[in-house]
Write a structure and sequence with these properties.
globular, HTH araC/xylS-type domain-containing protein, about 20% strand, 9 helices, AraC_XylS_family_regulators, 2 domains
């Protein structure tokens, strides 16, 4: 079992973070993760979009709270185990749910063979797992004595729900690879021509497997590239960064960044923590 302790001292004190990539699910799952530590001082944080579908299991308490982006005083509560669809904007998390938590990050299209519905039905939404699969995954994981055992139980749980008769259309992983290779700067019209199918058909199968439209996914891939470059530690003028990431100009770059993060790049660098897709909000 390949386990990595990737944590450095950040928002949590005495915290641990492990990642595990199960070989049996390599075609579908990017990695499992486990996090445990003290609650941070801030009560909310933004989880920035990366185009992925994920499972999140709160082991500390049987609830997950998400705040309304436009009205943070309002919130929705779910069970402690949720499936989060692909998002095209940030989630506003209650950090009280982050003291002890496990998760699964699916590869693009990797969640589809485990579900009975197309992924676009849960785009930009979160659903409780008890309404999806019935069995209480959270209790199954809590009964394990170590995080290694929890990873093993989670792996068996997913294998039992894998529907190999529901494969993803081969055009989707091909398209995702091309989009990632070009960091989102890929004309969809040219891609569709390479695939030899109509744009309408391509958009349909892409949304079924990924959850969001191809152009939106490309924009998120490009946004993630900008986060990577911003957090590498080198000082680069925003105008140059915009060109490196395929934006028309600095204004286009900042506008797109604000759409995804509701922050300017400079505000993001001031507020971000150790993990680039998590941004603390003031207490």
């Amino acid at each position: 079992m390949a386990l990595y302790n990737l944590h450095k001292k950040g928002w949590f004190v005495l915290a641990i973070y492990y990642r595990y990539s199960p070989a049996s699910l390599a075609a579908y799952v990017a990695f499992f993760w486990f996090y445990e530590g003290e609650k941070p001082a801030h009560t909310m944080e933004r989880r920035l979009p990366d185009g992925s579908v994920s499972l999140v299991i709160n082991l500390h308490e049987d609830r997950t709270r998400l705040y309304n982006r436009e009205h943070p005083e309002r919130f929705c509560e779910y069970s402690g185990s949720v499936l989060s669809g692909a998002h095209s904007t940030f989630l506003l998390l209650d950090t009280g749910c982050l003291a002890s938590v496990m998760g699964v990050v699916f590869r693009p299209g990797g969640a589809l063979p485990f579900l009975s519905f197309p992924l676009h039905e849960i785009a930009n939404t979160v659903i409780s797992l008890d309404t999806l699969w019935g069995e209480d995954l959270r209790e199954l994981l809590l009964d394990a004595e170590t995080y290694q055992q929890r990873f093993e139980r989670l792996e068996r749980f997913l294998l039992a729900r894998l529907k190999e008769t529901k494969p993803v259309h081969p055009a989707v992983p091909y398209a995702v690879r091309k989009m990632q290779q070009e960091y989102g700067a890929l004309p969809i019209a040219g891609l569709v021509e390479d695939l030899g199918m109509s744009q309408t058909r391509f958009v349909q199968i892409f949304k079924e497997a990924i959850g969001i439209a191809p152009k939106q996914f490309c924009r998120i891939v490009r946004f993630q590239k900008t986060l990577h470059l911003l957090t590498k530690g080198r000082s680069v003028p925003l105008s140059r960064l915009a060109l490196e990431c395929g934006y028309f100009d600095q204004a286009h770059f900042i506008h797109d960044f604000r759409n995804f993060a509701a922050l300017s790049p400079s505000d993001y660098l001031t507020r971000r923590g150790e993990y680039r897709n998590h941004v603390a909000l003031p207490v």
